[in-house]
Amino acid sequence: IREEALNKIASCKDMNELQSLRVLYLGKKGPIQEVMKSMKDLPKEERPAFGQQVNEVKSQLAQVIEDRKAVLEVEEMNKKIESEKIDITLDGQKPTLGNIHPLMLVQQEMEDLFIGLGYEIGEGPEVEQDLYNFERANIPKDHPARDMQDTFYINAEELMRTHTTAVQMRELEAGAKEQKLPIKVICPGKVYRRDDDDATHSHQFMQCEGLVVDKNITLSDLKGTLLFLAKKMFGENRTIRFRPSYFQFTEPSVEVDVSCHVCGGKGCPVCKGTGWIEILGAGMVHPNVLRMAGYDPDELSGFAFGIGIERVAMLKYGITDIRDFYTNDIRFLKTFNRFE
Ligand code: PHE
């Protein structure tokens, strides 16, 4: 029995097997117990020696099992370490980085330009009061000019702002409180209009408006500023032209074209053969607007302009459907990745 047990213990391969051997040889039903039971058949004087011998075998086996257990434990630990080893020489998986949305790229570019000119950045709520979106912009209730901007109304006093001019009216009011001069601010942000979405219309889009108020601000200041903007956004060779237009909050009002950045002004499909691309609306701040905000239009003047961020992004990047900005197709967005 001893030889057999020693062999089995020595060759056993894991803890489970070892445990069953322990139960087998040292437990109550094992062969050693059997032998012990047979002791009663022996002559009395032989029993002590026999018992001693059996006990020796028992304790020897117990010891050998303990030793084997120690060895197996080390082996199992080593196996575990081996299997959990990380091969640091393998190539890793590069985490995918997100990238900045094309509209944000344009917005940030404009912000950088105007911060460089000493402007501040103004922000206002997207759910706006009728007061700032319309009244203060010289668009009273029931005035037909309200139809130019189909509005999402929340209730009688609140609406989704239809232009960032609303933010300018807030900036103007805040400035007038302390008669601050000059005011130089740009207001980028989302605006909303009740339009049916198609390739060139979106019920939500982005604008960036600029406002300057000081003594002796003239139309030529506006022109110089917009020429600078056009050159920085569309290339140093660009020129601009003013066409008369109409906005309630500016007088005179102009629409501004930039010479086509694709054909350089010769005429191509992008500028529909005209050599010019309309990019923004602008004008001299209407005296009523200054007065309502709390400034004296006899003392000072200002200019304002408003540019559509989608429009600039579409021209700059050659995008033909405004909806591409908002459907968030990752393949489209990835083409603006500057980090790879
Ligand atoms: N608010 C006008 C628009 O949404 C743009 C504009 C801003 C025109 C400032 C003139 C001056 O179309």
Fold blueprint:
Blueprint: H1 2-11, H2 15-26, H3 31-37, H4 47-83, H5 102-116, E1 120-121, E2 127-129, H6 130-133, E3 158-160, H7 165-177, E4 183-192, E5 204-214, H8 219-234, E6 240-247, E7 250-259, E8 276-285, H9 287-293, E9 301-308, H10 309-317, H11 330-334
Bound molecules: phenylalanine.
The site of phenylalanine (PHE) has 11 residues, from β8 and β9.
How would you sum up this structure, described in words?
This protein is an alpha+beta fold and 340 residues long. Helix content is 40%, strand content 19%. It is built from 11 helices and 9 strands. The chain has helices at 2-11, 15-26, 31-37, 47-83, 102-116, 130-133, 165-177, 219-234, 287-293, 309-317, 330-334; strands at 120-121, 127-129, 158-160, 183-192, 204-214, 240-247, 250-259, 276-285, 301-308. The strands form 2 sheets. Strands 1-4-5-9-8-7-6 form a 7-stranded mixed sheet, sandwiched between helices. A hairpin with a 2-residue loop joins β6 (240-247) and β7 (250-259). α1 (2-11) packs parallel to α4, α5 crosses α10 (309-317) and α7 crosses α9 (287-293). The radius of gyration is 43 Å and the shape is rod-shaped. The two termini are 73 Å apart. The protein binds phenylalanine.
Index terms:
phenylalanine-tRNA ligase activity; single chain; alpha+beta; EC 6.1.1.20; 340 residues; Phe-tRNA-synth_IIc_asu; binds phenylalanine; 9 strands; ATP-binding; Phe-tRNA_ligase_II_N; 40% helix; 11 helices; seven-stranded mixed beta sheet
Strand order of the largest sheet: 1-4-5-9-8-7-6
Number of helices: 11
Strand-residue proportion: 15-25%
Rg (CA only): 43 Å
N-to-C terminal Cα separation, in Å? Answer: 73 Å
Largest sheet: 7 strands, mixed
Structural class: alpha+beta
Stretches where pLDDT falls below 50 for ≥5 residues?
none
Shape: rod-shaped
H and E string = HHHHHEEHEHEEHEEEHEHH
Whole-number average pLDDT? 92
Count of beta strands:
9
Give the fraction of residues assigned to helices. 25-40%
Bound molecules: phenylalanine
